[in-house]
Amino acid sequence: MRESWVALLTLYVPMVGVPILLFAYMISLVLSLDWASTPLLYLSMIGLLVFGISGLRDVYIAGWHGKAIVLKTAYAEKTTVPIGGPLLEKPGVKFVRFNVKRFNPGTQMLDEHVYDVETDRFTTVLDGLLRVKSTKDPTLSMRYSCRMGICGSCGMVVNGKPSLACETNVWDNAKNDELEVSPMLGHPLLKDLVTDFDDFFERHVLVNPYLFRNDLREKYHPVKEYPQSKEQLHEYLPFSYCIMCGLCLDACPVVNMNPEFIGPQALSQAYRYYADSRDEKGAERLKGVDILKGVWDCEFAGSCSEVCPKGVDPAFAIQLLKTDIIKNDLRPSSGRANVEERK
Amino acid sequence: METLDFDLIVLGSGIAGMTAAIHATNAANGGIKIAIVTKLHAMRSHSVSAEGGISGVLYPGEADDSINLHAYDTIKGSDYLADQDAVEILVKNAPKEIEFFDHIGVSWNRDDVGRIQQRAFGGMSIPRTAFAQDRTGFFMMRALYDELTQMKNVFVFHENFAYSLLIERGRFKGIFVLDLATRAIRLFRAKACIIASGGASRVYDFTTTAHSSTGDGIALAYKAGLPLKDMEFVQFHPTALIPSGILITEAARGEGGYLLNKDGKRFMEDYAKSKMELAPRDIVSRAIITEIDRKRGFKDEESGLGYIQLDLRHLGRKLIDERLPMIRDMSIKTLDVDPVKEPLPVRPAAHFTMGGIHTDIEGRVMIDEKKSAVQGLWAAGECGCVSVHGSNRLGSNSLSQCSVWGRITGLAAAAYVDSLGGAPLDKVSADTCKREELKITNLLDSDGSVNPYDVKAAMQKTMGELVYVYRTLNGLRGAKKIIGELKKKFKDIYIKDKGAVYNTNLRDALEIDNLLELADAIVSCAINRKESRGAHALVEYPKRDDTNWLKHTIVYKTHGGVGISYLPVKITKWKPEPRVY
């Protein structure tokens, strides 16, 4: 059976199963009917069965693939020392307490370290961490580079939300002058706030993320440009903003349960190249993601789009891929007819 | 020590490096084993921060534009220090490179008929800067990285820090690399190497560049005894946000933004009447500093920095969102100022290293100021000095330079590798490996009394105060002395992190060492040049002096310090004339 239909049956049917069950129950209440004597019983049982199957599938996936992602944590005793340091006389400057959960590669545990950092209203979380590193604790490690939200290095979790440290203002996010910073637990951890990106990069490569052209001579020795209208540009432009920071993958509940799922970043890039009028792979790109671990494992939680610092909206990209796949199933086309049609 | 063998090593993963790898692969039809060695994740190199666009005459004949005019603008912009034969190569090839990037997926802004749009830029007489919003460099980087994912002969070594360049008897042999994730030290051997590791603007504190722009490749060559060229010329970009130094692209002025002083006056009319805000960067930067010095600027109470205003309000929200969305986003996020509603506070910040590793016109790294090159070694992009930018680069010429010389060096290296055939790689002696290994272990064992980050901060402060837009002889001499003292102090540092996994304390020490060497070179070159040309404005010698100083500075690291000599500028069609805008 085609994977898209398997996916529909197992994933989307619960959305039918539960309403059927509820519907049967409501009718029986409203009409004060005896369950056993009416077809409502059978209806309820169908609902239960359908719901059960889909639940079993989730359990199966989680049991089979889901690594225990809960980490043992050795939290330091919450310190009761008041926030501060030497008296600050400069106006507009105050101490903010950074509670940093650092992954210790030796013990494989998260240790909580507490640093009081001098901040002003412009200080970003990255600035604060760099200040810790250069003045208090040089052993602290994190990734960073451009400090202007475009290189994608400094993804971490600030007060529970996956964020780019360089774009996150300390004062805006501190609660009672305290801030919690931890690594992205959805990625394998290396040290402190640094996570391993190998797996993330491998996912990206899975969707053939490059512009496919047949005219290789023109590609390497160009004599012209490929025209593209503003409308064609805007079909894919928002999805080309991806800086590969990994925040969406960290936030995705499906990937965290089921690492087989390709994940939001790669899929959004699949759509980015599929929707580019210059690409010549056409509908063939859809085949690559029309698999269970492709678009069909997405349960549209939407957390990827919620945390994306560049407004890419991977969840939307995945739904666009789904609709184009289904349209293509019903009325096969070899090109990007669906993209064109939607306008 | 683990040894890895390749045909070609590309050191650095910015636009120049990845372009080189792609063209080398294509030239060799995939039959060349390439390692890209980068201290970051490959797609995160500082090229992503390039905003405004890439120059190139896409439509010659239209609006009277021509390749020759682009060359003239570039040479005049360089204050006649650019080598004119190199500039001709740049302008001739730039349009082709823009089309190449179109073919690999860059999302160029388009005009109404679907052609690549071009915008006005400083020092360019006609709009000829192709752009993709205000994140052109980012889109180019993503396209290059994505293109590379299909090349099975290219091996990317993310987060591998090259700390030593091995050249023996005028021939490239390999590089020694520290793997950040594990602290493993490896020897990468190869027939050829292209250094494409970017600039060194982090010798300054107030800079538009990434924390990682520490000029490691330049320093590697310098420490290996190779000459650098024109290091005194550091570009200060006129408009960096205070207090962060985040770049506000020149395109903001290209699209029509104004620079205003405290009296609300467009003060550029006093400095460059015909070009106004779109004068070359050195001129605009000096104008801003002059305004601030004469108490016509603003002062930020919190940071104590003087600034002037960049006003974009009259451009309107629609244009800003379509063409300058990122600077709007960043201004709001980091400063809480929306350029649609308020002017932006800006001042000049270190931005680009015009100098770099001394190369010939093909990007081959030279051994000395005569005509001999190191066999098998090229440099491309900001780390190399061809020189097309002379004493002042025009905005948007850097992306052209990176892609043009990325391709040239990639093709040349592939041809060189091919010419060697199946010859085995040179052996590297065990003694050499031991010596290089000790460099890291000794550094790691450092248990002195000096915090390396204090040394870095002191160096950056010195450079920012004494080697900034305007320089004085006394200031430069003072800076030289302080940098010398800091270099001594650095020998007594401590490394607190002794761990093996992702030890950034160790990496930072290596970077600071590189920065100190380059700061020393910059200051030494600047003291010697007794004139004002392009980005080098010496208060005691305010005039350009073509009789004595129409020449490139060449600087070597010697045992006692630095050695300096000079090299004539290549002039083809354009004779030096007064530079008036």
Q: How would you describe this structure in keywords?
A:
heterodimer; A: 343 residues; alpha/beta; Ubiquitin-like (UB roll); Fumarate Reductase Iron-sulfur Protein, Chain B, domain 2; 3 domains; 6-stranded mixed beta sheet; two-stranded antiparallel ribbon; 15 helices; 8 strands; flat; B: 581 residues; Flavocytochrome C3, Chain A, domain 1; Methane Monooxygenase Hydroxylase, Chain G, domain 1; 8-stranded mixed beta sheet; 5-stranded mixed beta sheet; globular
Description:
The complex is a heterodimer of chains A (343) and B (581). With 343 residues, chain A is α/β, with parallel strands linked by helices. Chain A folds into three domains: 63 residues; 122 residues, Ubiquitin-like (UB roll), CATH 3.10.20.30; 145 residues, Fumarate Reductase Iron-sulfur Protein, Chain B, domain 2. Helix content of chain A is 43%, strand content 12%. Chain A has a six-stranded mixed sheet with strand order 1-3-2-6-4-5. A two-stranded antiparallel sheet of chain A has the order 7-8. In chain A, helix 2 runs antiparallel to helix 3 and helix 11 packs across helix 14. The longest helix of chain A has 26 residues. With 581 residues, chain B is an alpha/beta fold. Among the domains of chain B are: 109 residues, Succinate dehydrogenase/fumarate reductase flavoprotein, catalytic domain (Flavocytochrome C3, Chain A, domain 1, Alpha-Beta Complex), CATH 3.90.700; 139 residues, Up-down Bundle (Methane Monooxygenase Hydroxylase, Chain G, domain 1). In chain B, strands 1, 2, 6, 7, 8, 9, 17 and 18 form an eight-stranded mixed sheet that branches. In chain B, helix 1 packs parallel to helix 10 and helix 5 packs across helix 14. The longest helix of chain B is centred in the C-terminal third of the chain and has 25 residues. Chain B is globular and about 65 Å long. At the A-B interface, helix 4, helix 6, helix 7 and helix 8 of A face helix 3, helix 4, helix 9, helix 12 and helix 14 of B.
